[in-house]
Amino acid sequence: MKEHFDHPDVVVCPGGPLLLRGEHVIEDAEGRQHRTSRPVSAVCRCGKSADQPWCDGTHKVLPDKLKP
User: Fold this and answer.
1) pLDDT tens across 11-24, in order?
2) Which strands, in side-by-side order, build the sheet including 18-21?
3) Do 33 and 26 contact (CB within 8 A), yes or no?
4) What Pfam family is a match for this entry (predicted)?
5) Rounded CA gap, 56 and 51, in Å?
6) How much is the pLDDT for 29?
7) What gap in Å lies between CA 20 and CA 34, rounded to an integer?
8) Taking Cα atoms as reference points, which of 30, 64, 66 lies closest to residue 48?
9) Domain-wise residue ranges, the chain
10) Residue 1 clears pLDDT 60, i.e. is over it
11) Cβ proximity of 21 and 31 under 8 Å
12) Quick check: 37 and 26 in contact, CB under 8 A?
């Protein structure tokens, strides 16, 4: 029987990060693995965050053409 969840595990924020709910393992560009430890984690999609692979909000100041 398939479990029912009242929210998705992954949410794509238009022009912003990927939100992950629950436990996940993220692999960065160098191949290092990062385990999520918060109820909701934001993963950078613009590539400009100083806290890769996590979102630090930098996408908010980027011109629209550089947003994910």
Assistant:
1) 999 999 999 998 89
2) 10-12, 18-21, 40-43
3) yes
4) zf-CDGSH
5) 6
6) 87
7) 13
8) 66
9) 10-46
10) no
11) no
12) no
> CB count, 10 Å around CB of 58?
15
Of the chain, the percentage scoring pLDDT greater than 70 comes to: 90
Say how far apart CA 12 and CA 58 lie, in whole Å: 16
DSSP per-residue codes, 1-68: -----SS-SEEEPTTS-EEEES--EEE-TTS-EEE--SSEEEE-SSS--TTTTB--SGGGGS-GGG--
Under a CB-based contact definition with an 8 Å cutoff, are residues 54 and 42 in contact? yes
Residue length of the chain: 68
Place of tokens 């992950």: 20
Q: Residue with structure tokens 């560009």?
A: 29
Lookup result for tokens 């960065």 = 28
Residue 10 tokens, joined: 């992954």
